[in-house]
């Protein structure tokens, strides 16, 4: 079954947990890190996001296509989600951004957002997803609130928000920053994973890349034409679950739980140590020497 990429805000979470790996020095991390062996494309280059869009990858950043992103998710123990994903990150791996396109049609942006109502829906969906997480033997999650409330920018047709949560058993804090870039035929879903302590700096760094993002010719939001497919939901549902939110209104709340589990991404804070080895890989590549 195809992943509904808008489900419950498309939450991709950073699992802040103690890790012996975080204690490893850079040289040791390089030897043992499978992240450094992925087929990174180093900037300056252009990252192709399928047939719908592309993004400029400047120097100091790196890009993974679908196969590399799939392997990245396997290493990070993220469940498969059934759609093509792409990854962009700075070479220190201070944050990681996941891109995927959801062909839901043209989403009308004339809806007024109610943050309190949206957060209530997210909490209900999280309760449903916890049922599925328990079945898998995973830790459950509690939504603590907004890191910042949903905001929509009509100039660039972009919706953004951030949610703070906590793992029930480990007590690890979770955070995600979501952006939805509206296009003519659907939505590019972007989720940034970072350390909560570095959220503001990571968002600022990520936003420097946004002007380099472009929908392909004929795919821009402003290029909508009569007869194009129109999504059956609006901005709020992009946060609360998309198609699953519609299903929930029909009494299928469990659907959110099943899909939401597939949406979560766990990334150990030890990846910071991997970043040290990643920078070495990047340097060798720039010097023209073979990468590991």
Characteristics of this structure?
292 residues; alpha+beta; eight-stranded antiparallel β-sheet; three-stranded antiparallel β-sheet; disordered N terminus; disordered C terminus
List the helices and strands and how they pair.
Layout: H1 26-32, E1 41-42, E2 45-49, E3 53-57, E4 61-64, H2 66-75, E5 86-90, E6 95-102, H3 115-135, E7 141-153, E8 158-167, E9 173-182, E10 187-194, H4 199-207, E11 213-215, H5 235-240, H6 243-249, H7 253-263, H8 271-287
Antiparallel strand pairs: 1-4, 2-3, 3-11, 4-5, 5-6, 6-10, 7-8, 8-9, 9-10
Helix pairs in contact: 1-8, 3-7, 6-7
Describe the structure.
The strands form two sheets. This protein has an eight-stranded antiparallel sheet with strand order 1-4-5-6-10-9-8-7, sandwiched between helices. A three-stranded antiparallel sheet has the order 2-3-11, with no helix packed on it. The longest helix is centred in the middle third of the chain and has 21 residues, at 115-135. Residues 1-30, 255-259, 268-274 and 288-292 have low confidence and may be disordered. A hairpin with a 5-residue loop joins strand 8 (158-167) and strand 9 (173-182). The protein is globular and about 50 Å long. It is α+β, with helices and mostly antiparallel strands. Helix 1 (26-32) crosses helix 8 and helix 6 packs antiparallel against helix 7 (253-263). The chain has helices at residues 26-32, 66-75, 115-135, 199-207, 235-240, 243-249, 253-263, 271-287, and strands at residues 41-42, 45-49, 53-57, 61-64, 86-90, 95-102, 141-153, 158-167, 173-182, 187-194, 213-215. The two termini are 36 Å apart. Helix content is 30%, strand content 25%.
């Amino acid at each position: 079954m195809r992943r509904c990429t808008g489900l419950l805000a498309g939450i991709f979470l950073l699992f802040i947990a103690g890790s012996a790996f975080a204690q490893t020095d850079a040289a040791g991390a390089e030897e043992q890190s499978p992240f450094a062996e992925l087929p990174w494309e180093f900037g300056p280059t252009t990252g192709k996001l399928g047939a719908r869009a592309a993004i400029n990858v400047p120097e100091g950043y790196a890009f993974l296509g679908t196969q590399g992103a799939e392997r990245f998710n396997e290493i990070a123990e993220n469940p498969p989600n059934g759609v093509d994903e792409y990854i962009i990150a700075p070479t220190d791996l201070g944050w990681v951004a996941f891109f995927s396109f959801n062909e839901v049609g043209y989403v009308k942006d004339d809806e007024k957002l109610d943050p309190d109502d949206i957060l209530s829906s997210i909490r209900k969906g999280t309760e449903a997803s916890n049922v599925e997480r328990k079945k898998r033997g995973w830790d459950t999650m509690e939504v603590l609130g907004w890191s910042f409330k949903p905001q929509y920018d009509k100039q660039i047709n972009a919706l953004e928000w951030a949610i703070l949560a906590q793992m029930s058993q480990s007590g690890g804090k979770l955070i995600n920053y979501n952006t939805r870039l509206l296009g003519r035929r659907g939505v590019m879903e972007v989720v940034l994973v970072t350390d909560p302590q570095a959220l503001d700096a990571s968002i600022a760094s990520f936003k420097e890349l946004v002007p380099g993002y472009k929908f392909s010719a004929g795919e821009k939001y402003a290029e909508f034409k009569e007869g194009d497919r129109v999504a059956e939901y609006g901005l709020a549902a992009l946060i609360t679950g998309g198609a699953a939110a519609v299903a929930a209104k029909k009494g299928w709340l469990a659907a959110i739980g099943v899909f939401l589990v597939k949406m979560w991404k766990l990334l150990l804070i030890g990846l910071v140590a991997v970043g040290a080895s990643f920078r070495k890989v990047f340097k060798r590549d720039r010097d023209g020497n073979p990468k590991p």
